[in-house]
Amino acid sequence: MRNDVKEAVLHMYRMLAEAGQRQRIAGDVDRGHRAESTSGRHLDPLAELIREDLISGGFRPEDIFHGHAYQLRLPGWYRRSKDWDIVALNGKDDLVAAIELKSINSSFGNNANNRVEEALGSATDSHAAFTEHLYGVDSMPPALGYVMIVRSCLQSRESGRTAQPSLFPVDPVFQDASYLDRFRILCERLRASNLYQAVWLVYADPDSGEVSEPSPTLTYEKFIATITAALAIHRA
Predict the structure, then answer these.
(1) What secondary structure does DSSP assign to the chain, as a single string?
(2) What is the percent of the chain with per-residue pLDDT over 90, rounded to a whole number?
(3) Higher-confidence position of 182 and 29
(4) Residue 62 and residue 68: Cα distance in Å, rounded?
(5) Which has the closest alpha carbon to 97: 77, 71, 68?
(6) 130, 142 contact by CB (below 8 A)
(7) CA–CA separation, 155 and 33 (whole Å)
(8) Rg of the chain on CA atoms, in Å
(9) Which of 62, 106, 132, 216 is deepest in the core (most CB within 10 A)?
(10) What angle do CA 121, 138, 146 make, to 5 degrees?
């Protein structure tokens, strides 16, 4: 992993800590790390880095949007619309990629399933919207990108709660899986099933400064390469 990519990930945690400290000083005490995670801007450094690398890969600067641009809002099929974190175009109306940025830092038992459902729902809705020509009648399917930053800590490294009895056997791959393992399984399967074409998974420990990519198929380099390859296809 490049040093600037690692630094962008760690900078996210510094922003979270600063946001939490400001809220504590203001007397707005929140549960766990929720105060930090609701600051809303902690993924901006990663979004800007991805934008810069996509421009280096051939996108025009004016064709990549993040932040609060209206171009981030794409129509849905099962819902009215969805705001993505990064949208990349090839000209005015040719959607090349839509990217979701997510992180999980605490309350893994409560938040892990929420992240899974969000990822599946966004991809399913987007694929349906494309099929129903909501991205343009003559458009090509966009590449969907998914970024997940998981905090590596004692709680995420431990096995999850004991599985409750179920009508049918649970996939053995989840047996004794930690939350880190579960997110790796999720991201590998999102990519293998082609729900998302570009997936980047990171484990990060802001206390030690260690940042790692647990799967060779889910690296930052492959993530960027997949989206720039989509641009080449749209331009062909």
Answers:
(1) --HHHHHHHHHHHHHHHHHHHHHHHTT---STTHHHHTTS-TTHHHHHHHHHHHHHTT--GGGEEESS-GGGEEE-SSSSEEE-SEEEESSSS-EEEEEEEEEE-S-HHHHHHHHHHHHHHHHHHHHHHHHTTTT-TTPPPPEEEEEEEEE-SHHHHSB-SPPPP-SSPPPGGGTT-BHHHHHHHHHHHHHHTTS-SEEEEEEEETTTTEEE---TTS-HHHHHHHHHHHHHHHH-
(2) 78
(3) 182
(4) 14
(5) 71
(6) yes
(7) 13
(8) 18
(9) 106
(10) 30
Task: Say what the pLDDT of residue 36 is.
Answer: 44
Q: Output the CA–CA distances (angstroms, integers) from residue 65 to 18, 128, 136, in the order listed.
A: 26, 23, 19
* Amino acid sitting at position 51: R
Stretch 68-90: mean pLDDT: 96
From the number of C-beta atoms within 10 Å of its C-beta (0-12, 13-18, 19+), residue 161 rates as exposed
What integer pLDDT is reported at residue 161 of this predicted model?
A: 63
Tokens coding 117:
């459902």
Supply the pTM of this predicted model: 0.91
Q: Is the pLDDT of residue 39 over 70?
A: no
- The tokens describing 76, both together, are 């849905």
